[in-house]
Each structure stands twice: as structure tokens, then as C-alpha cells.
Amino acid sequence: MLLMVASATPERLHRLLDLHAAGVISTNAPPDRLVHGVRKLVRGQRFLDPEFAPAALDAGANPPAPREVEVLQLTADGTPTREIAERLCLSAATVRNHLSAITRKTGGRSRIDAVRIATESGWV
């Protein structure tokens, strides 16, 4: 499947590739690049529009900040949000913000998924 997107952030590329997209191309790509991408897919290869190369390079190099790691470790242990906030002297809203950032950075679909991905990435 070749997906056409207008823009691609590292998080968005991560999600698209997690959906097993074989290729991602810009909606503004010239026709010859589209043809090239389709031909690569037909040969069983993946295709990433060169326009998205900077975002692709950032996709795997966006580890959580130290405070996010602390929140992530407590979340992995099953600690509730309010207790995490108390232990780290944060508000519950700040803990939720950290968890949202971690979920975006990992490309996870939930907190549990983010913990799994972060653990596999060696961040926890």
C-alpha cells in the first residue's frame, strides 16, 4: 500500500509504518516520483518519498526526556496517575501531558503500547 500524505512528522511516519504501509509519498510529488514509488512497491520494496527523509531520520532518534522516563517507569510499574504526580511533585495534568508526549514519541496507541515500545527501545 502506497500512502499519499501532505506532510509527515516523525510521529506520523512512525504510525504510518506501524500500519505496515509499504510506501509513503507526498501529495505534491511529481508524476515521475509517483511512478518510481509504485514500481518499487511492485518489486516488493519499500518506498519513502525523499521529501520526508529528514522526518524519517528523526523518527527513531526522539527518546523521552529524563522526566518522561521517570513517569514512564512508574507507569510501567502500574502506578496510577495521581500517585505518580505525588511521588514526582507534579500535577496530575502534567503527568498526563508527559504520558501523551511519550505516546507520541513512541508512536504507541495507548499508554500500555508506549511502555512496551519504550521498553523494547531500551528507554526503560
The figure for the number of domains is 2
SS element count, helices: 7
Report the end-to-end length measured between terminal Cα atoms: 33 Å
Query: Quick one: biggest sheet?
Result: 3 strands, parallel
Strand order of the largest sheet: 1-2-3
Task: Describe the 3D structure.
The chain is mainly α. The chain folds into 2 domains: 2-59, no CATH class; 66-120, Orthogonal Bundle (Arc Repressor Mutant, subunit A), CATH 1.10.10.10. It contains 7 helices and 3 strands, in the order E-H-E-H-E-H-H-H-H-H. The protein has helices spanning 10-18, 31-42, 53-59, 66-76, 81-88, 92-106, 111-120, and strands spanning 2-5, 23-26, 47-48. Strands 1-2-3 form a 3-stranded parallel beta sheet. Helix 1 packs across helix 3 (53-59) and helix 5 (81-88) crosses helix 6 (92-106). The radius of gyration is 18 Å and the shape is elongated.
